[in-house]
Design goal:
Bound molecules: zinc ion
Strand content: 15-25%
Largest sheet: 9 strands, mixed
Number of helices: 13
Distance between the termini: 16 Å
CATH superfamily of one domain: Metal-dependent hydrolases
CATH architecture of one domain: Alpha-Beta Barrel
CATH topology of one domain: TIM Barrel
Helix content: 25-40%
Length: 522
Amino acid sequence: MRGWIVGAGYQIYSRCDQFVVTHYKGSKWAAAPAAHVFYCHLDGSFHPERRCCSQQNDRSITTKPVIEFLRSRRVLIKGALRPACISFENGRIVAIDDYASAPAGTHVMDAGEYCVLPGLVDSHVHVNDPGREHWEGFRAATAAAAAGGCTCIVDMPLNSIPATTTVSALERKREAARNRCLVDYAFWGGVVPGNTDDLMPLAQSGVRGFKCFLADSGVPEFARVSEADLHSAMPVIAETGLPLLVHAELPEPLMAAQMRLQSTRPDWTLHAAHLEARPPEAEIEAVDLMIRLCRKYRCRVHIVHVSAAETLPLLKQARLEGLSLTAETCPHYLYFAAENVPPRATHFKCAPPIRDATNRELLWNALAAGVLDLIATDHSPCPPDLKQLDTGDFNTAWGGIASLSIALPAIWTAARDRGFTLEDIARWMCANPAHLAGLQKQKGQIAAGHDADFVIFDPDARFEVTPNRLHFRHPLSPYLGEKLFGEVLQVFLRGRCIYADAQFAGERLGMELCTVNQWSQG
Ligand SMILES: [Zn+2]
């Protein structure tokens, strides 16, 4: 039976076959009288405790379908916040009506003045499991996602062992994820030299698209592709209709920069040295190459983590030409500026690097103009020792920034300063990433027929980022100590509450989203 929900204001306890809801006496909800959120049946009877069964055949003992109602003065629908009442059943949204539309005698969950947003979709997450689960695993990553208001992650094919470059490796991924995920998930496959024959089988097995590196990926099991490799792979990917996600830095400009840099005996404890080692030219030349290949093969291309603003005119021109080319940037490029990175602060290291404040503002402008389509975290954690904080060496420290649980407040904090709205954020962090991964009919919007994935969000709450708010395996992030606006109060996945008032549901309800074979749990 699906569709049970637990409203905020109630403590959640879970055993394997039972979901128990008791009254919560905490101060936060008591202090918000507009937010009476509670839990009931269509018949209006209140159930403080009831069985929650996952077996399909238990559906037969249900006497009537459960329709649930959630309303707020600010629900994000069709790109605008407005008063509305959402009804949903069996995990899917049935209808969206006026705020006061719930039938007389029914109880509704009322989020008051809090915003109800669609669940976020993060299309760029490195879970590293199997093989490097001591870096990040599905349990921790999906808990962090839930706490961040994200109801679906799409996992990158590298940093796990094996990398997801064959169907058997994809099955290993599925095995690692099964019954461990708090939120829904899907997989990108990998393109590496010599695996062209694996691409169609991977597509047929349900990956949502492919990822490749033009520069060294940092791990030996995921080799970079050359232009010749792409000539082989892209016609096949074009045939699948799936997107090719590209880490767009070319190795030659990177090598030239390294050579220049080494001759000057750089101080590698400074972020400035790392910045010099990854110049914009590497991104510009890579984007230029991908535009040419996109034009030649008519293969969907998506540029991941755009950092250098110099690439934006190229992306804009490609879009004007009508090429099927999209691009993302990441919270750390939009929030931080290179000139403010302290010496030895290698937890700010990522590739391509965080650039200066002028560059950052150009990225914001590109999001506003639709030249950049979406924001994805590129959540890429590692054990603290690999960050080499003791030596602070930007040359040898692992590159990657972890932010899955706090991307929404970080982006909201930076966005509201610049006059952007939650409507903009929903486009960049919900609808557009869902579209990239082919999930637009299920995720990324509050609309009839979509999954009942909701985030109850207080845009005016302010908090400091502390390790206990991160939830990923290693609570190390450049956002620690930042004071952010916007608190995720409660998160629903397919109609079920998975996160409320800093607590997680005990059940792992996340499922793989896979159009081929309709992959199902167990
Ligand atoms: Zn990445």
